[in-house]
Amino acid sequence: MAVCEVCNNDYEMAFEVHAAGAVHTFDSIECAAQRLAPICDNCQCRILGHGLQADGQFFCCAHCARQRGFAQLVDHV
């Protein structure tokens, strides 16, 4: 069994995620998102979709980007 690096649960169905040259072990998608998903620089929610980026900042949507002065960013439709 493997131990989740977020919650320390020792779980027989744990899985590995290989990202940016590192290997992470999780017992759930929730723990993986908690550790790996970026956080919106405006509203602090976890960005689980595509999100937007500008000047090294991450945003969950165009509204949050506009709140931080990035009027040129738009949501993808």
Number of DSSP E strands: 6
How much helicity do the residues have?
A: 10-25%
Q: How much strand?
A: 25-35%
The major beta sheet can be summarized as: 2 strands, antiparallel
Assembly state of the chains shown:
single chain
What gap, in angstroms, lies between the N and C termini?
42 Å
What is the succession of H and E elements?
EEEEHEEH
Please give the radius of gyration in angstroms.
16 Å
Mean of all residue-level pLDDT scores: 94
* H/I helix tally: 2
Class based on secondary structure composition and strand pairing: alpha+beta
Number of domains: 2
Notes on the structure:
This is Prokaryotic metallothionein. With 77 residues, the chain is an alpha+beta fold. It folds into 2 domains: 1-36, no CATH class; 38-77, no CATH class. The chain contains 2 helices and 6 strands; from the N terminus they run E-E-E-E-H-E-E-H. It has helices at residues 29-36, 62-67, and strands at residues 2-3, 10-11, 15-19, 22-26, 52-54, 57-59. The strands form 3 sheets. It has a two-stranded antiparallel sheet with strand order 1-2. Strand 5 and strand 6 (57-59) form a beta hairpin. The N and C termini lie far apart (42 Å).
